Hints:
Layout: H1 2-5, H2 7-11, H3 22-42, H4 44-58, E1 63-69, E2 75-81, H5 101-104, H6 123-130, H7 138-144, E3 148-150, E4 155-156, H8 157-160, H9 165-168, E5 176-178, H10 180-183, H11 191-203, H12 207-221
Parallel strand pairs: 3-5
Antiparallel strand pairs: 1-2, 1-4
Amino acid sequence: MAIQHNVNTRSSARTMMYDKPIYSLMIKRVLDIVISLILIILCLPLFLIISYRIYTREGKPVFYREVRMGKHNQPFIMRTFRTKTVPSQVIRSLPPLPVPDAWKNGVPSKFTLKSNSYTTITPTGEFLLKFKLHKLPLLFHVLKGDMSLVGPQAELIEVAKYYNEHQNKRLELKPGITGYAQIHNLYNDNHRQKVLYDLYYIRNYSLRFDVKIIFQSIKKLI
């Protein structure tokens, strides 16, 4: 795919134009509102069924809450359906103190997030994760304006605060439920590539690009 082939070379440029015409972002926001509202209405029975099953089978809480970094370094509380026996807890010593040299000039290319080893995925959680249904509550974040349907993955606060100037540019757009890096399975275990793909998306954003990403995301679930 030509787009994917050019990510490494074109996204690594030091001087890049990220500003988009205001009407382009307005159209994106209008589509986010309309599509998320329609999906929320259509999926309302599914919301109720999943919530009831989690509550009766695994108990409270139904939702997993985590603070994530949004557009322009604005944090927000992100909610998804709970998939583990106890809400997973990311160790809050990222990076470890004192800060190693690898983190002083930005987030390193690869690192590992350690979760609570005593948590296990619930039977309901396995099903939700398989079909990405745990992300359904994110539609409310899209409707509210914290997120977009398509965009960079919402970053952990503990990671984002160590972004360098180059990495911080991925926060110029709202985080998305899906995105260009996500459909290529790029997450924090390959942080450098994730940033490159996100910056490529930000610079080349278009409605057509968003549609392609959404269709590729659907194909990965089938």
